[in-house]
Amino acid sequence: MVVGHVELSAAGWANYPRATSFLLRPERVGVLPQMLTALPESLTLIARGSGLAYGDAAINEAGFLLSMSRLDKFLGFDRVNGIVRCQAGTRLADILRVALPAGWFLPVTPGTSRATVGGCIACDVHGRNHHHAGSFANHVRTVTLLG
Length: 147
Description:
The chain is α/β, with parallel strands linked by helices. The chain contains four helices and six strands, in the order E-E-H-E-E-E-E-H-H-H. The chain folds into two domains: 6-67; 74-139, no CATH class. Strand 5 and strand 6 (83-86) form a beta hairpin.
């Protein structure tokens, strides 16, 4: 156990495989640099959204999981052009709650609206219309990474 961090048994959508990891759950983006600098260099880190990937995309045996659950802020919506700005932990359902009343829908959606934007980008999800709309990444204009 790493002092100051919660131990968590995590899995993807199929609940297999499972891995024991150390959970980091930042309250806001501003605390990330100091949080990440304080981690032991010997342990690995992976971001985790809703944990809905079919395989083991966001589990990290004996390493750190960076929960995006509180980094879910909706930063802006251009109602004229249908452009959304948000943090990685924003769920598709949250975007639809704002976009639908303005006459917009996501061009690509996976089988659940509980997926996060970061997870959709990382897994480059597709919907039933992928033959003409492409995948999620085909509709992302920019990504800002914290490095």
